[in-house]
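B., you asked whether I could sanity-check this one before it goes into the benchmark set. Here's the sequence:
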Amino acid sequence: VKQKEHIRKLKDAVDVLSLSATPIPRTLNFALAGLRLMSVITTPPKNRVAPKTFVLPFGTQVIKNALEAELARDGQVYFLCNRIGKMPLMQGYIQKIMPRARISTIHGRMSESELIGAMHIFREGKSDILLATTIIENGLDISNANTLIVEDSSLIGLAQAHQLRGRIGRSAVQSYAFFLYPAKKLKEKAARRLDALFQAQYLGAGQDIALRDMEIRGAGNILGRDQSGRVNQIGLNLYCQMLSEA
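And here's what the prediction gave me:
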């Protein structure tokens, strides 16, 4: 939001086009209230197949089956672990399950040359599994990587999870996204996010996911930068009515 506002202030008359897989609640709320114009692109690229999404408790057998299935068809896997300190432990865990798998790692604390090197190895097919943080959510397009495993999806926002799911299925091959969660520690909001993700696993689901995200998080702050607000306490319809009256 800060970056968008900065761009708009650079010159009064400039038109700004923002592109988003899932607009944040505040941006979507602007559009629904008629304060911002919005167009929706729902037509997928030719031959694109929607990823199949699974929401399951974390378990060794689930991970082993998913890895074996992808590697058996000479594909590659994104394995998302969003805590850098936990990554060496997770690498050992994966290596134990899949002794022959070649694993490379990327995260935001690596130097640029290390990141480029690790991505080059993965892109060239010299590693099978890319163990990564959410650093992968932006712009990666590797058509041979068609399985995503998220180790603890309860910590990831709904729009972000949808964005991550967009990293796979970049070709005509069927792809699979596994959003795993700790079975005994799942909070209510996290459960609602994961349910929304499971329900909207078709192509062009971005806006539907954004609307559900807004219901869960609130509609943001029209006059400020907050991306979530208390709309759920009065309901979206009444909120929009009060807004139009104001």
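One thing to flag: The longest helix spans residues 60-72. Otherwise nothing jumped out at me.
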